[in-house]
Structures are given as C-alpha cells and as structure tokens.
Prior knowledge:
Blueprint: H1 9-38, H2 66-71, E1 145-147, E2 156-158, H3 173-184, H4 190-199, H5 206-219, H6 221-232, E3 236-246, E4 253-262, E5 272-276, H7 281-287, E6 294-297, H8 301-308, E7 313-316, H9 318-327, H10 333-353, H11 358-385, H12 394-404, H13 423-439, E8 441-442, H14 445-464, H15 468-478, H16 492-497
Parallel strand pairs: 3-6, 3-8, 6-7
Antiparallel strand pairs: 1-2, 3-4, 4-5
Helix pairs in contact: 3-15, 5-14, 7-8, 9-10, 9-12, 10-11, 11-12, 14-15
Amino acid sequence: MNAIQIPSIESLQSKVTYLQNEVTYLKEQLDWFKRQLFGKRSEKIISDVNSEQLVLEGFEDLKLTTEEQKKIVQAHTRKKPQRNGQDKIALSPDLPVESMVLDIPEEEKVCKETGAPLVKIGEEVTHKLACKPAHYYLKEIIRPKYAHPQREEEGIRIAELPDSIIPRCRADESVLADIVTKKFADHLPLYRIEEILEREGVGISRKLLSQWIVRLGATLRPLYDVMLKYVLASNNIFIDDTPVNVQDSPKVHQGYMWVISGGQEANPYYRVYDFRENHCHDNVLEILRDYRGVVHSDKYGAYEKLANMKRITWCPCWSHIRRKFFEAETGDPPFREWVLRKIRYLFLFEKVAWSRSEEERLRIRQEKEVPIIDELITAIKKKLVEGKVLPKSKFREALGYFCGLIPHLKNYTKHAFARLDNNVAERAIRPLAIGRKNWLFFGSTEGGKSAAVLLSLVQTCRALGINPQEYLEDIFRRFMSHNAQKLHELLPDRWRKI
Length: 498
C-alpha cells in the first residue's frame, strides 16, 4: 500500500494565509459594492484635522482671516442658506405685475347702525408668485408686393424674409431655442418635449425635432470651432470623458464625449464637448495635437503618453488619488488615515493659496505643499516596497496608482494658474451624466456631434449665469448674416457684453 502523504505544516500555513487573504479581498469588494448601493457616496471622513492645525511652526502666516475667507473663489466655498424659519423666494425686479383688487361688498361699506359710509383709510398689498402655461402662437409675416403700373418688365418688389438659421423651417427661432434649452439644459428627452407641445395644441413629431437638433448643431459648428480655439489657446485646460450610447443601427454601441474647459481663472467658464465614436488614445492625441500647455486630467494613458513625449505639462488630479485611498478601507488603516490627512492638508493650503496673489500662491506651494508631497512619496514608496500588501487589494491599487504619478505630482506647484484637482472638468461633465439618464442615447453619430456643439453653448451659458434660451434665440437670428471673421462676438461671454 502507498503511504498517505500528510501535508507539511508549512504548506498548510501557506494555504491558510492564501485563503485569509482571499477572504479579506472578497470582503473588501463586498463592502465596496454595499457602499455603492446603500451607503453615502460622499468621500468626507471623520478626521481630527481642522483649520487650527495649519498653524504649525512656520505656518502662522497662512491662517485665514475673516476678510480673506470672504474672498475665496466660489469653487471652494458653499454658503449655508439663511431661512429664518421660512423658505425665501428671490424675485427679479423685472417681473411683470398683474394687480387684482379684492374688495368687500358694497352693502358692507355702510355702517349698519348709523348708515354713514365707511372711509377708505389705506390698503394691504400681498404678493404671490404666479405663472401661465407656455404660450405658443403663429407669427404671421405679411409682405406687401409692389409693381410699376405701366412697366411690367421691372417685376415685383417685396421685402426679403429675415434670415433663418434653418432655411424654410416653419418654427421660429424662439421655438428652436426653447427646444434646445429643454433638451440640453433641462435634460428633457425629445419624446417628453413632443408631449409638452401636444398639451399646448402643437403637434411636432419626434423625428422632426431630432432633425432640427442635428441641423442646428451642424450650422453652429463654426462658432463651436472658435470656442475650442480659445480654450486651447488658454495654456491651462481641464479635460475629462464619459461614455454615451449611440443608436446608429438597430443595435446600440458605446461612444464617448470629452469635455475640455480652459482658462487661467479659478473656475474657467468655457465648456467645450467633443463627441467621439470610441475611447482610443488617438482621440486625445487629435484633440491636443497642437496644444503645449498645462493639462489637468485623470490617469488616462493618453495624457501620460503626451507628458512622456514632453508635449504637455501634465497635472494629475489629487482628488482621484484621494478617492483611491478613501476606498482602500482594509490593508493598513492607520497608514491610510495618515495619507488622507496629508492630502487634506494640501487642499487646505490650496484654499489659502487661492485667496492670495499669484506670487504668494507659488510661495505657499513651494514652501508648504511640496514638503508634504515629498513626505507622501517617501512613505508610500516604502510601504509598497515592503511587500506586505495584498496584491489584489484596493490598498495595493491605491499605492500603485500614486507611485505611477510620482514624476508629475508637483507640476501644479510650478504654475500659479494650475490646480490641485480636475474638478473643473468633473463639474462640466456632470450635466451630461445627468442628461443621459433621461434621453438614454444619441440617435446617430451626427446627432452626437450636433449635441456636442449645442451642449457647449448651453453649458457655457449656465457657467456664466446667462439664460440659455435668450442667448440661443438671439444668435439664431443673427448667425446667418454675421461676419464670419467676427464669430467670436457671438460667444456667450462676448455676447453678454454687447
């Protein structure tokens, strides 16, 4: 008989360790999925960090004064509403007023005992916000015709019709602007717009609405190209992408929409969307083919490729780095908390830096933030080299993610207009993510390209606080006759100054 081979203690211990690691990894995955489904999505954590902790040795001059806190850029602050026990309604002074008099009956205007008439001593006025349904009407354009009574050869004279952005279209520019605003600012799919119109006695098919959207986007493409040119000339851009579905055939395939925002302001207002049919690196290389400035983005390989080619200065997003460590709840909790605390120090210093001049901002970054980054690099590299981290864990993923970005982590500290994060692009991509939950997909590739043009104009208006419908109606009427060499005058920020 063959002797029974008993596993060695070493092999059993190795198997136990492997199974323990597997259980830890699966538990980590399960906790992450449960948090996505049922937990809070906020990345805010309980920490002992507060503004007073910035007042360390050598940091005293960075403490925010009350006056400086008021100057912090809007992107960094959020005002708490002061309701005083009731909700406040902000009303424009330009709102029309319709008065309605509620008087007592005539018989009550006489004293019942003496018969003497009552005297009006004043009145009490109450205001209520009211509305009327959207009012659609037919615009009848009457053009008198003239002819010479004896000389028929001179023909007939008649006034020219105003230029229309869609030739021979039966919808006025005001209706077209309303449709585009509902679609790309209010995120209404075309079938809901069709139903809204039907309730008002206007029947327009979804197919025709879609055709108008496509034609408007194609017509306004030159204005879109001017906006993109201005963004790429800003020397400081924020870029991100998100998937979108395209129904170009009976089957739905996945396309991608990029958003590029540029400018040296704290929160650049230009939002340029670019639709592409796939997610390959060539798309980024084409979008940024002539660009040589600062790029803020996530860790997509195409940006890293451009940075390694020395074509751009790449500033990877520290918010993404923070998110990786926030999700790594197992592994080494004390070390994770230490990393998150250090990253929060960076954001607190940035909050102070953006309230100061450009020269002071660079000084704060070099003297206060760079040492923190160096400290993080040393500690995280050491933790990764020690080899005591589960290979497939989120903690290991966070460490590797950070180490892969080490050559570029300090780039933002060298440019006063650069940012620590890519939140500008993250905010710009959010309306598209909300919209696709409603309209689900683009009807064609051409529809995706037209949507990119119209989204760029509408979302830039929203960033500037401009009513998109007023802006679109005006440029729809002026676009066809406007000087092609002066299209920049129709960009939202220039239009507001006219």
